[in-house]
TrEMBL record:
Gene behind this protein: purQ
Provenance organism: Haloferax volcanii (strain ATCC 29605 / DSM 3757 / JCM 8879 / NBRC 14742 / NCIMB 2012 / VKM B-1768 / DS2)
Cellular localisation: Cytoplasm
GO cellular component: cytoplasm
InterPro entries: Class_I_gatase-like, PRibForGlyAmidine_synth_PurQ
Protein's UniProt name: Phosphoribosylformylglycinamidine synthase subunit PurQ
Pathway in which the depicted protein is active: Purine metabolism; IMP biosynthesis via de novo pathway; 5-amino-1-(5-phospho-D-ribosyl)imidazole from N(2)-formyl-N(1)-(5-phospho-D-ribosyl)glycinamide: step 1/2
Length: 224
């Protein structure tokens, strides 16, 4: 069973459950003050505005009671996916490197973007080809990925960058970067490839009736 953690202010938890269910997974919401169910085989940290993004996005949710269990599960190899606010929570809790900060535009960005698959040899990207371009929606005010230069070089050397913002032809340019992320980074792996975070929303591009299923491949990563 995939546990979709619901924090105060989450607003994409139901979307995640619906998208996962449509792919044939058993998924249910778990309140952040409750323990992870014993049958948990995967975890989603969903998007939203946990605790109103006070202090900074994800900072307070990262200290919620359930996150210690999430970290322990991740250490045991349980797949964990953080999306948007969940990506911020993942970084703030140390599951993945870096931080997501205020967009370079200083505005909330809500639009569809193109992503280039940088590493197709992970559970989260195995459904795609390296260099493939997919389209996913974003909706964030603090989506700019930042990391110190030394650790960024390590991230690149270890091939832990999953997606970069690009144009429709796959060109990684400043113009295609919606938030000013370092290196156009849109998604990264944690120390283990079972843990990933990304700012765009795969669950909002997974239902055929919505006209875009490019995000299904990311969620399929819970199959292992």
């Amino acid at each position: 069973m995939i546990a979709v953690v619901q924090f105060g202010g989450s607003n994409c938890d139901r979307d995640a459950v619906r998208a996962l269910s449509d792919l044939g997974f058993e998924a249910e919401r778990v309140w952040h003050e409750d323990p992870l169910p014993e049958e948990t085989t995967g975890i989603v940290l969903p998007g939203g505005f946990s605790y109103g993004d006070y202090l900074r996005g994800g900072a307070m949710a990262a200290r919620s009671p359930i996150m210690e269990s999430v970290r322990e599960a991740a250490d045991d190899g349980v797949p964990v996916l953080g999306v948007c606010n969940g990506a911020q929570i993942g970084c703030e809790s140390g599951l993945t490197p870096g931080a997501f900060t205020t967009n370079a535009s200083a505005r909330f960005q809500c639009e569809h973007v193109y992503l280039r698959v940088e590493n197709a040899d992970t559970r989260w990207t195995a459904a795609y080809d390296e260099g493939e371009v997919i389209e996913l929606p974003i909706a964030h005010g603090e989506g700019r990925f930042e990391l110190d230069a030394e650790r960024y070089e390590e991230l690149e050397a270890d091939d832990r960058i999953l997606f970069r913002y690009c144009d429709a032809e796959g060109n990684v340019t400043d113009e295609a970067n919606p938030n000013g992320s370092l290196g156009n980074v849109a998604g990264v792996l944690g120390d283990s490839e079972s843990v990933a975070v990304l700012m765009p929303h795969p669950e909002r591009a997974s239902l055929p009736q919505l006209g875009n299923t490019d995000g299904r491949g990311v969620l399929a990563g819970f199959e292992g």
